[in-house]
């Protein structure tokens, strides 16, 4: 294995000089000497010891990223935004998929401590709450940013989920739909709680009664949306529209309606959240609340970058959403 001593010998300089060049320290090194060291590194294929370098510089240039479902295209869009900015800033991402499991979350929190990551991004208020209960922030002084609403004292990037849901319901009401069921995500999610609040507020503001039995919780998957839609279709009177908390569940709901011989939107309208690529390819096209997933991720990483260099950042950053109207309403 090639060592730093081999590089120094090839370049004809001291080990200290090689270290100064590789670590880009402020100690002056002539351009000629720097070039000789870099050429020796390239010729020998030398790879510095990351662990030793991190101990010396007190940084690892790594960012921990915890998300609840790596298979969900909503999260992959956010990850792309985070990774692009991280790459520009010279950071590497350590991705941890919790699969919505508290046990996995606690395991990954330990891993991130052991890896000595420079900062952490939690994708979802639920993960942040688990970290808070684990006393993660009392044990480690790690700069942290959360994507989503949470109760902790660290910066977050959010959308106004309550208002987005209210506007979605208002869209259905203006089109004449009065019996609006709701397929919600897990009740522990702060996103779900906010969207339910917006759904309820829109109904009440328009003189309609909020009926808890018209809300069915599922797991953000197409199969969960299918099952929840089947359950809601048994209600009397039958819903004439469905507000669905993400597009994947909405796809499942569309399948459930088709299996019953119901025509969308004549018999039942459907509206989702996220605007994943699949939303424009189902039949009919899915009306949905478009969330700026890439910008959520990019903004979160920029905030974390600023925290890492000691710059002040806002406590809450709220990004706008759009309603994309397609054939399902």
Walk me through what this model shows:
- The chain is of the alpha/beta class and 329 residues long.
- It has three domains: 4-48, 434 Repressor (Amino-terminal Domain); 62-159 and 293-322, 3-Layer(aba) Sandwich (Rossmann fold); 161-290, Rossmann fold, CATH 3.40.50.
- Helix content is 46%, strand content 16%.
- The protein has 13 helices and twelve strands.
- It has helices spanning 4-11, 15-22, 31-44, 50-57, 73-88, 102-115, 125-133, 136-139, 161-174, 190-205, 222-232, 247-259, 293-308; strands at 62-67, 92-97, 119-123, 144-147, 156-158, 180-184, 215-217, 241-244, 269-274, 287-290, 316-318, 322-324.
- Strands 2-1-3-4-5-11 form a six-stranded parallel sheet, sandwiched between helices. It has a six-stranded mixed sheet with strand order 7-6-8-9-10-12, with helices on both faces.
- β6, α10 and β7 (215-217) form a beta-alpha-beta unit.
- α1 (4-11) crosses α3 (31-44), α9 (161-174) runs parallel beside α10 (190-205) and α11 (222-232) crosses α12 (247-259).
- It starts with a helix and ends in a 5-residue tail after the last strand.
- 43% of the residues are buried.
- The mean pLDDT is 90.
- This is Transcriptional regulator, LacI family.
- InterPro entries: HTH_LacI, LacI/GalR-like_sensor, Lambda_DNA-bd_dom_sf, Peripla_BP_I.
- Residues 2-57 form the HTH lacI-type domain.
- Pfam families: LacI (PF00356), Peripla_BP_3 (PF13377).
- Keywords: DNA-binding, Transcription, Transcription regulation.
Mean pLDDT: 90
The main β sheet shows up as: 6 strands, parallel
- CATH H-level homologous superfamily name of the largest domain: Response regulator
**Low-confidence region ranges:** none
Overall 3D shape: elongated
Strand fraction equals: 15-25%
Oligomer category: single chain
Number of helices: 13
* CATH fold category name of the largest domain: Rossmann fold
Overall tally of domains: 3
Query: What would CATH call the class of the largest domain?
Result: Alpha Beta
Secondary-structure-based class equals alpha/beta
Largest sheet, spatial ordering of strands: 2-1-3-4-5-11
**What's the architecture of the largest domain in CATH terms?**
3-Layer(aba) Sandwich
| Helix proportion range | 40-55%
Radius of gyration (CA) equals 25 Å
Question: In total, how many beta strands?
Answer: 12
Distance between the termini: 64 Å
Which series of helices and strands comes N to C? HHHHEHEHEHHEEHEHEHEHEEHEE
GO molecular function: DNA-binding transcription factor activity; transcription cis-regulatory region binding
Protein name: Transcriptional regulator, LacI family
InterPro entries: HTH_LacI (IPR000843), LacI/GalR-like_sensor (IPR046335), Lambda_DNA-bd_dom_sf (IPR010982), Peripla_BP_I (IPR028082)
Pfam families: LacI, Peripla_BP_3
């Amino acid at each position: 294995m090639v060592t730093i001593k081999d590089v120094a010998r090839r370049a004809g300089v001291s080990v200290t000089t090689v270290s100064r060049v590789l670590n880009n320290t402020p100690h002056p090194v002539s351009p000629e000497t720097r070039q000789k060291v870099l050429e020796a590194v390239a010729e020998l294929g030398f790879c510095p010891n990351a662990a030793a370098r991190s101990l010396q510089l007190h940084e690892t240039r790594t960012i921990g990223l915890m998300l609840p479902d790596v298979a969900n295209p909503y999260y992959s869009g956010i990850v792309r935004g985070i990774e692009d900015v991280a790459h520009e800033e010279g950071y590497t991402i350590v991705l941890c998929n919790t699969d919505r499991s508290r046990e996995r979350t606690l395991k990954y929190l330990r891993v991130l401590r052991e890896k000595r990551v420079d900062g952490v991004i939690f994708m979802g208020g639920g993960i942040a709450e688990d970290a808070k209960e684990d006393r993660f922030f009392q044990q480690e002084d790690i700069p942290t940013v959360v994507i989503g609403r949470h109760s902790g004292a660290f910066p977050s990037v959010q959308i106004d989920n309550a208002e987005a849901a209210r506007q979605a319901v208002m869209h259905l009401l203006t089109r004449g739909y009065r019996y609006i069921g709701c397929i919600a995500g897990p009740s522990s999610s702060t996103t779900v709680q906010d969207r339910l609040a917006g759904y309820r507020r829109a109904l009440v503001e328009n003189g309609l009664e909020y009926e808890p039995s018209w809300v069915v919780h599922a797991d953000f998957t197409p199969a969960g949306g299918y099952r929840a839609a089947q359950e809601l279709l048994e209600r009397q009177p039958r819903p004439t529209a469905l507000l669905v908390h993400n597009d994947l569940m909405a796809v499942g709901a569309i399948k459930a309606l088709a299996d019953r011989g119901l025509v969308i939107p004549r018999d039942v309208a459907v509206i989702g959240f996220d605007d994943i690529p699949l939303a424009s390819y189902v039949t009919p096209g899915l009306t949905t609340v478009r969330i700026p997933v890439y910008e959520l991720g990019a903004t979160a990483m920029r905030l974390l970058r600023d925290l890492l260099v000691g710059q002040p950042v806002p406590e809450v950053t709220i990004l706008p959403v759009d309603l994309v109207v397609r054939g399902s309403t």
